[in-house]
Design a protein that fits this description.
Length: 309
Amino acid sequence: MKKRMIFCGLLLGLVARTGWALPPVLPTVPGAAPARDVSQSQPAMRDITAAEVERTGLLPADIELLDNPAYKWQHLQTEHFILHHDQKMFAAKVARLGEQFYQAISADLPQMKDRLSPVRSHIFIFRDARSWKAVVANTPGLDPWAASFVRGPVMYLQEIGTGTADKMGTLAHEMTHLVFNRFLPIRLPLWLNEGLAEYYGEFAYRAARGMGQGKRNAFRPLARWTPLTDLLHATSYPLNTDPKVDAVGQFYATSKYLVGFLQLKQPMAKWDEFFNRLLDGDDPLTALLETYGWTDIAALEKVFAQFVR
Ligand SMILES: [Zn+2]
């Protein structure tokens, strides 16, 4: 789930050129093909009729939305997605970048398979604030601040933001959830799920455009963060009970910074080991502390505090 516009400020100040993407989540297979140049690929897409839309994997609520004549859906199909939209220009951009993000994010899962292939994921695109409100109201368990979200293999994407980078950052965030849902047989802890989505949301769009950036520069000092005990144990999003404190925004930021800390300041071999333990079904918190050698959460918070300073 993507919160409305929290990190737009961070997208400004990113300058230095580096390579693309997260280091591999899992060890790269020796002799494997080099990563595809995502900036060059031009995914195939075609308009399809409503009758041609595959419905495998859709929930009753998805089908109801798809069949609702008020939306006047048009349908665009790519290798991995069927997009439902009412404006071709934005949908074509989502289709093209969506496929590029899919390639880039799945390239970081080199030893894993897309478990749903060849079934395509659906992307519903909303450009009208009123219809988005209706979707949020009709989705049980969804927090009212949700700007876009993924449920299983289906993405509900709202076109919001002032510029292409904002909009495509949201797409990259949601695409991370979608790809992980398709590839991983496990559910990641909330902080890791949102932290990775924020991490890709920040970097994937510029990378797909061939615009590199210094990742380290994206992690400017963080004035406030969610206490790591709360973050690491969280199974639901925090409540914004105090109007002066953006608890939800802090939760997303802290999750992203913790992923950045593990990715940029710790050995990649540890990340691979940690991720493999998650895939084996180990308790995430135990796996995190044991793999990185922190005796407890306080020990982690001590080094994390230096990173965010
Ligand atoms: Zn999310």
